[in-house]
Amino acid sequence: MNFDKKIATRQSFGEALLELGKTNPSIVVLDADLSAATKTSIFAKEFPDRFFDMGIAEQDMISTAAGLSTCGKIPFAATFAVFATGRAYDQVRNSVCYPNLNVKIAGTHSGITVGEDGATHQMLEDIALMRGLPNMKVLSPSDDLQTKWAIEEASKINGPVYIRLCRLATPTIYDEKNFEFGKGIQHGEGTDGAVFATGNMVAKALQAKEELEKQGVNIRIVDIHTIKPIDKEIIVKCAKETKKLISIEDHSVIGGLRNSHFRGFDR
Amino acid sequence: MEDLQKRALNIRKNVIEMIYAASSGHPGGALSCIDILTTLYFSEMNVDINNPKDENRDRLILSKGHASAALYATLAEKGFIAKEDLLGFRNINSTLQGHPDMKKIPGVDMSTGSLGQGLSIANGMALAGKMDKKDYRVYCIMGDGEIEEGQIWEAAMSASHYKLDNLCAIVDNNNLQIDGKITEVMNPTPIDEKFKSFGFNVININGNEIDEILNAFEKARTAKGRPTAIIAQTIKGKGVSFMENQAGWHGKAPSKEEYETAIQELS
Q1: Exposed site from A75, A132, A194, B42, fewest CB < 10 Å?
Q2: Which CATH fold topology does B2-265 show?
Q3: Do the Cβ atoms of B124 and A54 come within 8 Å?
Q4: CB neighbours (10 Å) of residue A177?
């Protein structure tokens, strides 16, 4: 892990879209007047004919993406997580998930780490909302390369995918794109506890692991980049080997990583 | 013309048969838009019953999905679905559920049901057509109560902004919604002026007169650089005397006696 080289996953998202756009002409991108912040502007600059700013109208954006997808396009619709999943929930449910359409929804600025914008913008329920929807898959990448992988992976899945992204720059954890959809990544073999983390909390957990090692406590970290479908195997394995499951997420404990992964273990 | 009128009458009869067999459904708003649907499927739209997903086909989104009986009966009249299947309408084992499902019913271009989303979806299809330089047209039938949904106006803005002249929006202006007269429940009038001010080419017609409908579609095709909105004045419950202009017939099935009278009137 490189604590010095930091990059926000929204930036990685923008760069990944650009790369994807170069090789796949079906990729189209929609935004709701936040392209500078969501970084879809990177794609828009290179491919203005495949970028649609829908203005401040998230419901229209999601349904338009649904329409585009029925004609063979692979739309990525991006805005802040709170608007993508909250404001447009009914559109995601009825016009995307019910007909199982090939729409990708990128929610940037998720979690409390949005910071100064305050509570209206700190989306803490998006995982809960999206993972409850039939057909929807949920990705929550932790660093630069993992985000780029997640965007490529989402484009290959034929169906709806929600990708949870963050505003703040976070340390780079991985050197290569060696990820598998639906499979958590275990860091270390410590048996004093297993910390399941997702998104921007993975780097924090890895930092904590180093600190604890100095105090003689050996934990392992599990990076859950795919929230749905869940990786049951790694949960059972870690439960057996450590007897202590801990979760860290920039999300409400209701309906998030903890709720989805520790069912049956929670006390 | 005569052929279209005959088909419309047939479709009306089938709608009554279906709703009576199901003991539930939405006769009022189905009957009001049947002349529009008939004209679309038997004169205006380029569709192929042997290739329902043809990428060059014209598309229809029944945004007021609760008028599904009218769509199913029209699709059966056209040959997309078997006529004998119509009597399974709303039955748990039938694909013909209360609101249309694009994944299960040949000829249905979009799953609808939650009001207000169809026009945005139509925009997405129209945008894709423009991108791919295809000359198909996209039609979207909305209810006049439905346009109380804010998303319709987001979509109206987008259609005009992106100059979607391959889009034809149709408002089935039957003047009634579930709770009563549209002007008393939540007044959306003047509907034509609203679409005009959003940049649409607006055509006012009697939506139960086939020659006027034919003429309007013709005019819509020649409008360049902006979308068309046809405001179709219709009669809710059209064709069945005791259902006409009665809000109470929005969502209920006829009794045995009422059914027999209705079929007699339509014969």
Answers
A1: A132
A2: Rossmann fold (3.40.50)
A3: no
A4: 12
**Residue in chain B lying closest to A98 (CA):** B111
> Are the C-beta atoms of residues A81 and A107 closer than 8 Å to each other?
yes
Residue A61 forms beta bridges with which residues?
none
The domain in which residue A116 lies consists of 2-172
Separation of alpha carbons A199 and A179, rounded Å: 14
B123 touching chain A per CB within 8 A: yes
ipTM of the complex as predicted: 0.97
- Angle, helices A58-70 vs B118-131, to 10°: value is 50
d(CA A58, CA A36): 16
A149 pLDDT tier (thresholds 50, 70, 90): very high
Chain A nearest-CA residue for B123: A64
Give yes or no for residue A267 having a pLDDT over 80: no
Instruction: Give B108's contacts in chain A (Cβ within 8 Å).
Output: none
Task: Write down the domain spans for chain B.
Answer: 2-265
Q: Which residue blocks in A71-164 are alpha helix, DSSP H? A: 81-82, 89-91, 126-131, 144-156
Q: CA-CA distance, B53 to A44, in Å (whole number)?
A: 30
Q: Does A158 touch chain B (CB under 8 A)?
A: no
Residue A190 lies in a domain: yes
Distance between CA atoms of residues B213 and B31, nearest Å = 15
The proportion of chain A whose per-residue pLDDT surpasses 70, expressed as a percent, equals: 99
**Residue A266: predicted pLDDT:** 60
87-126 in chain A: CB under 8 A from chain B: 90-91, 93-95, 98-100
Q: Among A54, A62, A67, select the one facing B122 at the smallest CB separation.
A: A67
Q: State the smallest CA–CA distance between residue A22 and chain B in angstroms.
A: 16
Backbone angles phi, psi at A98, to 5 degrees: -60, -50
Distance CA A196, CA B256 (A): 62
Task: HSE, CB side, 13 Å, CA atoms: give it for residue B251.
Answer: 10
Residue in A15, A19, A46, A58 annotated catalytic:
A58
Which pLDDT score, from 0 to 100, does residue A1 have?
A: 74
Contacting residues of A for B66, CB less than 8 Å apart: none
- For A54, the closest chain B residue by CA position comes to B158
CATH number of the domain within which A195 lies:
3.40.50.920
What are the tens digits of pLDDT across the range A8-38?
999 999 999 999 999 999 999 999 999 999 9
Other CB atoms within 10 A of residue A200 CB: 27
Do residues B47 and B78 touch, judged by C-beta distance below 8 A? Answer: yes
B151, B153, B162: best to mutate for the A interface, most A CBs within 10 A: B151
Say yes or no: B109 contacts chain A, CB-CB below 8 A.
yes
Active site residue A58: yes
Task: Indicate yes or no: pTM above 0.95.
Answer: yes
